[in-house]
Amino acid sequence: MRTVRTAPGRDRPATYSMVPAPGELPVMTWRMEHAWEGNSSFEEHAHDFPGLAYFQTTGGRLRTGRRDWPIEAGDLYVIAPGDLMGHIQASDLAGSHGWGVFFTADALGPDVPGAHLAWRTHPLLFPFVRGGAIGALRLRVPEPDRPEWTARIHALHNELAQRRDGYREAALAHLVLLLVGVSRLAADVVGNLHENQEPLLAEVFEVIEQRYPQPLSLRDVAAAVNISPGHLTSTVRRRTGRTVQEWITERRMVQARRLLAATELPISDVGRQVGFPDAGYFARTFSKAHGVSPTQWRRAGTDPTRRPRPR
Fold it and tell me: CA 107, CA 311: separation in Å to the nearest integer?
């Protein structure tokens, strides 16, 4: 699994995107007790994909948004796309023991096109509806349930690391069970957020979903939701860590990957079906996002021995 960093701008933090290799399940685990050694620091940043951070023991501190949290055993942080994770020193987390689980909404099935649109289409993603670069939602796993949470994340990690036959199905099953647990813990907090707290984002991603196969620009989206392009840009970037155009491109890349993996359409036809009438521009955009050309990506997905190394 590869992550790509977008440099911070005047009004947004550095933002990380997850780019799976051909045929790879877009799910990643991170054993936190192995990550906090040394004197390094972690910049203020956001992700454009959902994630969880679960802590098994008490110790250390975590900054989300502008808030500084002492870490306690059983803490579960629900990290929505765009949530701001604060600048920390490695020493702040030296006493922590836990796991991070990150994924893209694509992992949940072919009918879930992207993290933000999925807020409205997949109930397991309702806890991630908040957006807003406000900092992760902090939940508490009851003490009797903590061994099961640890075991579930261990099992997910082992499936992804070992890749035995059927690992995709097994890893997805573990992820779904984790998200069911999150949804139950967050039920009282989330309520009807997915329906009424992000109406502008809902409109924006609905326009993108309906029109991404056609020529579509920031101005087109702004006109469709009846606000100025400048206001739309600043609002979406502040709430998700990415621009409207970046989300249009991301939606197109999701569908391009599906068509490359599941069909034998010529590359130029794939590009046209996802909104790129110019085959050369499609190839350049895909290569910039994935580190390899559409042809290389397709070939690597059908022959693991020829998997290209991302640039």
Answer: 24
| 311 residues of the chain, pLDDT tens digit each | 778 888 887 777 888 888 877 778 889 998 876 455 555 677 888 888 889 999 999 988 888 876 788 899 999 999 888 788 888 777 777 778 889 999 987 787 765 555 555 555 566 777 776 544 456 788 899 999 999 999 999 999 999 999 999 998 999 999 999 999 998 887 755 444 444 456 677 788 888 888 999 999 999 999 999 999 999 988 887 766 678 898 898 888 878 888 888 889 999 999 999 999 999 999 999 998 888 899 988 887 654 444 444 33
DSSP 8-state symbol, 20 = P
Distances (CA, A) of 105 to 43, 50, 109, 114, 120: 25, 8, 8, 6, 12
Q: What is the pTM of this model?
A: 0.67
CA proximity to 102, closest of 202, 32, 12, 14: 32
The DSSP bridge pattern shows strands 137-140 and 61-64 to be unpaired
Task: Transcribe 137-153 into DSSP letters.
Answer: EEEE--GGGHHHHHHHH
**C-alpha pair distances (Å), 206 with each of 89, 203, 219, 239:** 39, 5, 15, 16
Angle between helical axes of 279-290 and 244-262 (0-180°, round to 10): 100
User: Domains, the chain, ranges and CATH?
Assistant: 2-192 (2.60.120.280), 199-306 (1.10.10.60)
Cβ neighbours of residue 125 closer than 8 Å, sequence gap 6 or more: 50, 105, 108, 112, 115, 118, 119, 179
Q: Which amino acid would we find at residue 164?
A: R
